[in-house]
Specification:
By secondary structure, the protein is mainly β. Helices cover 9% and strands 40% of the residues.
C-alpha cells in the first residue's frame, strides 16, 4: 500500500505557470512567447474588469486540463502603499484608491473634503 501511494504521489506532476512576452495580433489573438509560443489565450480577470494588455508586457500563462489561460501581466506598483489600488491605461489615464479615502483621477484629488 505505501509503495502504491509513493509511486502515485511522485509520478504525477502538476502544470507549471510560465512567464513570457505578450503579443496581440488579429491572427493569433493574445499570445505569449516563453519557452514556446502560447496562442489564442483566453485572459483571466476579476468579474467586471476587462482589459486588452498592450504587446511587449510580461505576462503569465497557466496550463489547464483543457487548454491554457493568460493570468495577466506583471504589474508595477510604483507609488502605491500596501492596500492601495491603481487602474491605469497605456495612454496614461489612471485611477488610484488611496488608503486614507482619497481618490486620484489622473493625479487630481477627489474626496476627503
Amino acid at each position: 500500500m505505501w509503495l502504491m501511494n509513493y509511486i502515485t504521489k511522485n509520478s504525477m506532476t502538476s502544470p507549471k505557470a510560465v512567464k513570457g512576452e505578450l503579443s496581440v495580433s488579429e491572427a493569433n489573438g493574445t499570445a505569449v512567447s516563453a519557452a514556446g509560443e502560447h496562442k489564442h489565450l483566453a485572459l483571466c480577470f476579476p468579474y467586471g474588469i476587462a482589459s486588452k494588455p498592450p504587446s511587449g508586457e510580461k505576462a503569465v500563462v497557466l496550463p489547464l486540463s483543457d487548454g491554457e489561460v493568460g493570468l495577466g501581466v506583471i504589474a508595477s506598483t510604483v507609488g502605491l502603499e500596501e492596500g492601495e489600488l491603481m487602474l491605469y491605461s497605456k495612454g496614461g489615464a489612471s485611477l488610484v484608491l488611496k488608503n486614507d479615502g482619497r481618490v486620484l483621477i489622473n493625479g487630481r484629488e477627489y474626496g476627503n473634503d
